[in-house]
C-alpha cells in the first residue's frame, strides 16, 4: 500500500494528465503512453493514424524517414503509411517517440528540468539500443530495448513537468543522500515507481513493464543471458550512464572515473568497457544531430547534444539557469551544527558512496584498483565524522611486518604518505593495535601515560588532539588500519550511525581481501 505522501503525488500527476487544458508536453506524454502501451500489438494502420493526429510530428517523421540513416535505398516517402512499409514498423514507432522527446527537449516554453529529462529519455533509449547492438551487431530485441530504456526515465518527465519545485528539492536532497531516498523523502516514491504506476494503467506490454522494475542485487550477480534480463539491465545501465553525462556536479576530470565506477557495478551481469560506451555515446550524439535537424532544432539548443558534445570533448557542462541550480541541504552545515536526525541522515548519505564503491568490487570477476576503494572510504569517513585527516595503512609488499600510509586525505596524510611508520617493534599505541587487532580511540593525546605512547609522526601536520585506530582483518590477520585524526583541542565524536557504517565497511573490505586471495576478483 503506497504511503499517504506517495498517494498524494500520484493523485496530483493523474489530475494534471486528465485536465482538458493540457499543455503541449502533456499531449506528448499521452501520445508516448499510447504508443508504448501498444508497442507490440498495434497495427500499421493504427500507428499511422496515431502519429498522423499530430501534423507537426507527422511532417517530421516523414522528413526524418527520407534521410539516408533511415532510408538508405532513397525511396521517396510522403506519408506515414509509406514510411512504415519502407523503413519498418519498430523504427518508425521509435522515431516518433524520439522526435517527440527531442522536440520537447528544445521547447523554450518548457522548464529547464523538462527539457533535460526529455533529452535524458531519448539519450538513454538510444544508448541502450546501441550497446545492445555492440560489439557483434546484435539486432534481436534492439527496438524493444530502446522503448524500455526511454520509458525507464518516464517518471522523471512526469515529476519535472507537473511538480517541478519539489523535483528540484528532491535533486538537492540527492546531494546529501541516495537519490532514491531523496525522492522518497519528497514524493513518497522513486521516479521509476512513479513511471511504473502511471504506465501500468495503460495496459503496457508485459515485457516493457518488467523493464520498469527496480534492479535487484540478484540481477547484478549473474550474467544477463535472457533477453528480458538484458533489457532490464541495459535500461538501468544506460540510464545511469546518461545521468552522469547530464550531471553538472560531475566535473570533466571526474567523468571517466564516475563512468568506470558505474560500469563496474554491472560487470557481473553485463560486462562492457568504457571504450565501448564512449564509442556508443559518439553514435548517440550523431543520431541526436539527425533528430535535431528533423525537428528544426539547433544543436546548441538541444540539452542532449550540448551535454554529449561537452563530455566527448572533455569540456565542462554549461551552468544551469539560477532558478534550476541545486545545492546540498546538509553539506551547507558543519557536522557540529547538525541535529541528531540530520547527523544520521548525513552519515547514511556520506558512507553510502563508499559502500557502493566496495559493493561494485564484490561482484565475482570484477577488476578494480584498491586505490579507488580506499580513497572512497577515507573521503567518506573524513566527511561523516568531521575529521581533519584520514589515513589508511596497508602492509608493505617487500616487508610485510611494516605498514605504510598508502591512501588517505588531509595535511597529515601528505606529510607521512608512503612511509613505513607502523611496525610491531615501535612500542607505541599503534604496535598495541597491531598485536591485539582491536579498535583504539584516543580522546586526548595529552592525558597522563597516554602521551608516552603517542608517536611523534602523528603531530607532523600540527598538534593532533584526538585520533581513532580501526584495524581491518581477514582470517584473524591484520591487513590494513584506518586512522582518523582531529586537532586544536577537538575530540573525535562518532555517533551510532557512524559506528554501524564503519563496522559494515570494514566487514566488506575483509570480504574483499578474501575474494582477492581466492582470485574471484582482481584488485591491484
TrEMBL record:
Gene3D superfamilies: Hypothetical protein af1432
Superkingdom of origin organism: Bacteria
SUPFAM superfamilies associated with the record: GAF domain-like, HD-domain/PDEase-like
Domain (HDOD) ranges: 22-218
Protein name, per record: HDOD domain-containing protein
Amino acid at each position: 500500500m503506497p504511503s499517504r505522501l506517495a498517494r498524494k503525488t500520484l493523485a496530483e500527476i493523474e489530475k494534471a494528465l486528465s485536465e482538458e487544458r493540457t499543455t503541449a508536453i502533456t499531449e506528448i506524454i499521452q501520445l508516448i503512453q499510447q504508443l508504448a502501451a501498444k508497442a507490440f500489438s498495434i497495427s500499421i494502420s493504427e500507428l499511422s493514424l496515431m502519429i498522423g493526429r499530430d501534423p507537426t510530428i507527422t511532417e517530421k517523421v516523414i522528413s526524418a524517414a527520407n534521410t539516408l540513416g533511415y532510408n538508405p535505398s532513397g525511396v521517396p516517402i510522403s506519408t506515414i503509411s509509406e514510411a512504415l512499409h519502407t523503413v519498418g514498423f519498430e523504427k518508425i514507432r521509435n522515431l516518433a517517440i524520439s522526435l517527440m522527446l527531442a522536440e520537447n527537449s528544445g521547447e523554450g516554453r518548457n522548464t529547464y528540468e523538462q527539457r533535460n529529462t526529455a533529452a535524458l529519455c531519448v539519450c538513454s533509449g538510444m544508448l541502450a539500443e546501441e550497446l545492445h547492438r555492440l560489439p557483434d551487431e546484435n539486432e534481436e530485441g534492439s527496438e524493444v530495448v530502446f522503448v524500455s530504456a526511454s520509458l525507464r526515465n518516464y517518471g522523471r518527465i512526469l515529476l519535472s513537468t507537473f511538480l517541478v519545485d519539489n523535483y528540484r528539492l528532491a535533486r538537492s536532497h540527492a546531494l546529501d543522500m541516495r537519490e532514491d531516498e531523496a525522492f522518497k523523502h519528497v514524493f513518497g516514491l522513486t521516479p521509476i515507481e512513479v513511471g511504473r504506476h502511471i504506465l501500468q494503467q495503460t495496459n503496457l506490454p508485459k515485457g516493457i513493464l518488467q523493464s520498469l522494475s527496480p534492479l535487484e542485487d540478484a540481477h547484478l550477480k549473474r550474467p544477463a543471458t535472457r533477453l528480458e534480463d538484458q533489457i532490464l539491465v541495459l535500461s538501468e545501465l544506460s540510464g545511469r550512464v546518461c545521468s552522469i553525462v547530464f550531471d553538472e556536479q560531475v566535473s570533466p576530470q571526474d567523468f571517466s572515473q564516475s563512468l568506470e565506477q558505474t560500469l563496474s557495478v554491472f560487470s557481473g551481469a553485463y560486462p562492457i568497457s568504457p571504450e565501448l560506451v564512449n564509442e556508443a555515446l559518439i553514435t548517440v550524439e550523431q543520431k541526436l544531430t539527425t533528430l535535431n535537424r528533423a525537428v528544426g532544432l539547433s544543436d546548441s539548443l538541444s540539452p542532449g547534444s550540448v551535454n554529449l558534445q561537452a563530455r566527448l570533448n572533455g569540456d565542462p557542462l554549461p551552468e544551469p539557469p539560477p532558478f534550476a541550480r541545486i545545492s546540498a541541504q546538509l553539506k551547507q552545515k558543519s557536522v557540529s551544527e547538525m541535529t541528531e536526525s540530520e547527523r544520521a541522515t548525513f552519515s547514511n548519505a556520506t558512507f553510502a558512496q563508499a559502500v557502493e564503491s566496495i559493493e561494485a568490487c564484490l561482484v565475482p570477476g570484477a577488476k578494480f584498483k584498491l586505490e579507488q576503494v580506499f580513497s572512497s572510504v577515507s573521503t567518506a569517513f573524513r566527511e561523516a565524522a568531521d575529521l581533519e585527516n584520514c589515513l589508511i595503512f596497508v602492509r608493505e609488499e617487500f616487508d610485510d611486518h611494516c605498514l605504510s600510509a598508502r591512501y588517505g586525505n588531509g595535511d597529515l596524510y601528505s606529510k607521512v604518505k608512503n612511509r613505513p611508520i607502523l611496525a610491531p617493534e615501535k612500542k607505541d599505541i599503534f604496535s598495541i593495535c597491531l598485536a591485539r587487532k582491536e579498535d583504539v580511540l584516543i580522546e586526548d593525546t595529552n592525558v597522563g601515560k597516554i602521551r608516552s605512547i603517542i608517536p611523534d609522526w602523528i603531530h607532523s601536520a600540527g598538534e593532533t588532539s584526538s585520533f581513532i585506530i580501526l584495524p581491518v582483518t581477514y582470517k584473524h590477520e591484520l591487513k590494513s588500519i584506518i586512522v582518523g585524526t582531529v586537532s586544536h583541542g577537538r575530540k573525535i565524536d562518532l555517533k551510532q550511525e557512524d559506528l554501524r557504517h564503519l563496522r559494515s565497511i570494514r566487514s566488506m573490505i575483509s570480504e574483499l581481501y578474501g575474494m582477492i586471495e581466492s582470485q574471484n576478483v582482481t584488485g591491484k
